C-alpha cells in the first residue's frame, strides 16, 4: 500500500503497440487506485465494427522496478470471455481500467493485456509519468 | 430522502410544542396528545422518536434542529430557543409569489435541475402544501419538449459547480466529426442550452480560445486544483449576446446578415425574433427583408436552410454561397 497524498491526473494521446488499439487518454493516480481511461473507435475491418474485451490478467508494470499491478476492475468494457459487440463500424467506446495504487514518482509504465501479444491485444509500452506534468484533482 | 407530507405535519406540531414557552419540555406523550388534537391521528411513540431524530439530522435530509432531551424535566427542548423549522416569516404576497414560481419551475424543469435542488424544492413544496391544502403544484400546465435520458446530463451538477466556483476541468472529449478522443483542460465559463441540448462553454487550453463542448461528448469531468484562466470578457460577450446557437463558424467575426423571406415565413420571423438585433423592412407584397448583427453559426445556417426556397441570404455573399453549397 502506498500513501499517495494527493490525487493527480495525467493527459495522454497515446496509441498502443498497434494502430488498432484503443487510445490511452488519461491516467489518474490516487491513494486508492490507479485509473486508466481509454477511447476506442470501432473498425471498418469488420461488418458491424467488431468487438472489444479485456483480458482478466491485464497488468501495469513499472519499467524501472518490474513491479506489477493486476487489473481490479473494468468499467464500460467486459472482461474476457465476455465481449462487447459493436453494432456499426462508426460506434465508439470510452472505458476505464482500475489497478492498485502505484507510487507517485517519476517512472515509465507498461500496460499489458497479453505479454508478447498480437496487434489486436491492447498493450502500451513506455508510458512516461512525470510528476511535474500531473494535475492535482480537487477532491 | 424526501420528507412525506404526513411527516412534515408532525414536525410542525413538534416544532410548535418545542417553541411554546408557556409549556416547556414536552414529553413524547405530550407530543402524541398534540398530534391527536391537531392532526386527528395518533402516531406511535416510536414514530415520534424517529421524527425527532430526523429533525435533528443535518441538512439536506433534516433540519439540523438543536433538539435536546432534558433528564431533569423529562422532556424535549430547543437548545437554541430562537430555532424553528420554519423560521422565515413570509407575508401572503411572498407565499403567493413563491407558490407561482415553484409551479412554473416544477412545470418547466422536470429532471433538468439537479437532485439536490429537486430535494430542496420537494421540501419547500411539502411546507407549501401544508399552508395551501388546495395547492396542486404537480399538475403540468406547461409542457416542454424535454426528453429525459440525454447522455452527459448526469454531469450537470459538477459542471455547474465548476462554472460557478471557477474550477478548471479535466475531461475526455469525443468528436463525432473527427471520430477522435482527446483529453482536454477547460476553464469553464457557462452552461448553455440550445434546442434542448446542453453545452459547456469554456477556455480550452489546447485550443487557446473559448470553445463549446456538448454535454453528450464530455466523459468523466474532474475538477482540478489549478489556476483558473479567466476568459476575455469581449470574447465571452460573443457567446452570450451575439450568437444564435452554440457553434460559431470559424474565423467569422460579428457581421451584418441580411435575408429575404417569403410572406408566410416573414410571419414566423416577426413572431419569434431570432436575435435582439433583428430589424425588418417589410414589402407591400408581404416579403420580409430582415437584418441581423450576428456571429454566423452552424445553427444559423441550419435554420436558414430549413426554410428552403422560402428564405434567401442576401448578405454577406460568402454566407449566401455557404448556405447554398452545404
Percent of residues in helices of chain A comes to under 10%
Largest sheet: number of strands, sense, barrel closure of chain B: 5 strands, antiparallel
CATH architecture descriptor name of the largest domain in chain B? Roll
Average pLDDT taken over every residue of chain A: 93
Order of H and E elements of chain B: HHHEEHHHEEEEEHEHEEHEH
CATH class of chain A: Mainly Beta
How much is the radius of gyration of chain A in Å? 15 Å
Instruction: Write down how many β-strands of chain A occur, each being a DSSP E stretch of 2 or more residues.
Output: 12
What's the helix-strand series of chain A? EEEEEEEEEEEE
Poorly predicted regions of chain B are none
| Proportion of strand residues of chain A | 35-45%
Low-confidence stretches of chain A: none
Mass-distribution shape of chain A: globular
Number of domains of chain A: 1
Distance between the termini of chain A: 20 Å
Q: In angstroms, what is the radius of gyration of chain B?
A: 28 Å
**Classification by helices and strands of chain A:** mainly beta
Write the layout of secondary structure elements.
The complex is a heterodimer of chains A (about 140) and B (about 325).
Chain A: E1 8-15, E2 23-29, E3 34-41, E4 51-52, E5 59-62, E6 68-70, E7 73-75, E8 84-85, E9 92-99, E10 107-112, E11 124-129, E12 135-136
Antiparallel strand pairs in A: 1-2, 1-12, 2-3, 3-9, 4-8, 5-6, 5-10, 7-9, 10-11
Chain B: H1 5-18, H2 28-39, H3 45-56, E1 67-70, E2 75-78, H4 92-109, H5 115-131, H6 156-165, E3 169-175, E4 180-194, E5 197-204, E6 209-214, E7 218-223, H7 233-241, E8 255-261, H8 263-271, E9 279-282, E10 288-294, H9 298-306, E11 311-315, H10 317-325
Antiparallel strand pairs in B: 1-2, 3-4, 3-7, 4-5, 5-6, 8-10, 8-11, 9-10
Helix pairs in contact in B: 1-2, 1-3, 9-10
Amino acid at each position: 500500500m502506498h500513501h499517495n497524498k494527493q490525487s493527480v491526473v495525467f493527459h495522454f494521446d497515446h496509441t498502443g503497440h498497434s494502430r488498432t488499439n484503443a487510445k490511452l487518454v488519461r491516467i489518474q493516480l490516487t491513494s486508492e487506485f490507479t485509473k486508466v481511461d481509454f477511447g476506442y473507435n470501432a473498425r471498418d475491418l469488420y461488418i458491424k465494427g467488431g468487438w472489444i474485451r479485456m483480458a482478466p490478467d491485464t497488468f501495469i508494470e513499472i519499467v524501472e522496478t518490474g513491479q506489477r499491478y493486476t487489473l481490479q476492475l473494468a468499467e464500460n468494457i467486459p472482461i474476457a470471455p465476455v465481449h462487447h459487440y459493436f453494432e456499426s463500424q462508426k460506434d465508439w467506446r470510452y472505458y476505464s481500467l482500475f489497478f492498485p495504487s502505484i507510487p507517485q514518482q517519476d517512472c515509465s509504465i507498461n500496460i499489458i493485456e497479453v505479454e508478447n501479444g498480437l496487434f489486436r491485444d491492447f498493450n502500451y509500452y513506455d508510458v512516461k509519468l512525470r510528476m511535474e506534468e500531473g494535475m492535482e484533482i480537487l477532491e | 430522502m424526501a420528507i412525506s407530507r404526513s411527516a412534515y405535519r408532525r414536525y410542525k406540531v413538534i416544532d410548535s410544542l418545542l417553541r411554546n414557552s408557556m409549556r416547556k419540555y414536552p414529553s413524547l406523550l405530550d407530543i402524541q396528545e398534540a398530534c391527536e388534537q391537531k392532526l386527528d391521528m395518533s402516531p406511535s411513540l416510536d414514530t415520534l422518536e424517529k421524527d425527532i431524530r430526523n429533525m435533528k439530522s443535518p441538512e439536506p435530509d433534516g433540519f439540523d434542529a438543536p433538539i435536546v432531551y432534558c433528564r431533569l424535566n423529562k422532556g424535549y427542548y430547543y437548545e437554541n430557543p430562537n430555532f424553528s423549522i420554519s423560521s422565515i416569516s413570509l407575508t401572503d404576497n411572498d407565499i403567493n409569489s413563491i407558490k407561482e414560481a415553484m409551479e412554473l419551475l416544477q412545470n418547466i424543469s422536470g429532471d433538468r435541475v439537479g437532485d439536490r435542488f429537486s430535494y430542496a424544492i420537494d421540501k419547500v413544496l411539502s411546507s407549501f402544501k401544508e399552508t395551501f391544502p388546495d395547492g396542486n403544484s404537480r399538475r403540468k400546465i406547461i409542457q416542454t419538449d424535454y426528453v429525459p435520458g440525454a447522455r452527459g446530463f448526469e454531469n450537470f451538477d459538477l459542471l455547474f459547480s465548476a462554472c460557478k466556483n471557477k474550477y478548471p476541468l479535466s475531461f475526455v472529449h469525443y468528436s463525432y466529426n473527427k471520430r477522435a478522443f482527446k483529453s482536454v483542460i477547460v476553464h469553464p465559463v457557462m452552461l448553455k442550452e440550445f434546442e434542448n441540448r446542453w453545452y459547456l462553454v469554456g477556455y480550452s487550453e489546447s485550443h487557446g480560445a473559448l470553445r463549446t463542448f456538448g454535454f453528450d461528448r464530455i466523459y468523466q469531468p474532474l475538477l482540478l486544483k489549478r489556476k483558473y484562466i479567466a476568459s476575455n470578457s469581449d470574447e465571452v460577450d460573443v457567446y452570450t449576446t451575439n450568437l444564435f446557437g452554440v457553434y460559431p463558424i470559424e474565423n467569422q467575426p460579428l457581421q451584418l446578415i441580411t435575408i429575404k423571406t417569403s410572406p408566410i415565413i416573414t410571419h414566423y420571423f416577426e413572431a419569434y425574433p431570432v436575435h435582439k438585433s433583428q430589424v425588418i423592412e417589410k414589402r407591400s407584397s408581404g416579403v420580409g427583408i430582415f437584418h441581423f448583427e450576428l456571429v454566423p453559426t452552424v445553427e444559423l445556417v441550419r435554420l436558414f436552410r430549413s426554410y428552403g426556397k422560402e428564405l434567401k441570404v442576401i448578405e454577406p455573399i460568402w454566407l449566401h454561397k455557404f448556405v447554398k453549397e452545404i
